[in-house]
């Protein structure tokens, strides 16, 4: 077993290490540099072109369905 000074040192490390990490990772500069950048890499902002293509496809399918339904109800 170590002396009591070693135990006090270990307890100090156990208590200060999480506090230091919490302080470092919650600094606004680090948050913006690391977390926001990582978020933008993982989930890039959507571009309007694919959204427009999807909207056009929806409109085309809806028009086709309306034409088919008109044919069914007219017969």
Sum this structure up briefly:
Keywords: Membrane, Mitochondrion, Transit peptide, Transmembrane, Transmembrane helix. This protein is mainly alpha-helical. The protein is built from 3 helices and no strands.
Count of runs of 4 or more consecutive helical residues: 3
Q: What is the rounded distance between the termini? A: 95 Å
C-alpha geometry: rod-shaped
Number of strands: 0
Biggest sheet features: none
Give the low-confidence spans: none
Classification by helices and strands: mainly alpha
Mean pLDDT: 89
Q: What proportion of the residues form beta strands (DSSP E)?
A: under 5%
What's the alpha carbon Rg, rounded to whole Å? 30 Å
Order of helices and strands: HHH
User: What percent of the residues sit in helical stretches (DSSP H or I)?
Assistant: over 70%
What does this structure look like?
With 75 residues, the protein is mostly helical. The chain is 85% helix and 0% strand. It has 3 helices and no strands. The protein has helices spanning 4-25, 28-42, 48-74. The chain is rod-shaped, with a radius of gyration of 30 Å. The model has no long low-confidence stretch (mean pLDDT 89).
Descriptive keywords:
about 0% strand, mainly alpha, unfolded protein binding, about 80 residues
């Amino acid at each position: 077993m170590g002396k009591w000074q070693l135990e006090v040192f270990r307890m100090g490390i156990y208590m200060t290490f999480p506090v230091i990490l919490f302080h470092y990772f919650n600094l606004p500069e680090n948050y913006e540099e690391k977390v926001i950048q990582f978020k933008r890499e993982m989930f890039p902002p959507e571009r309007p072109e694919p959204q427009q293509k999807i909207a056009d496809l929806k409109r085309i399918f809806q028009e086709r369905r309306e034409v088919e339904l008109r044919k069914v109800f007219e017969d």
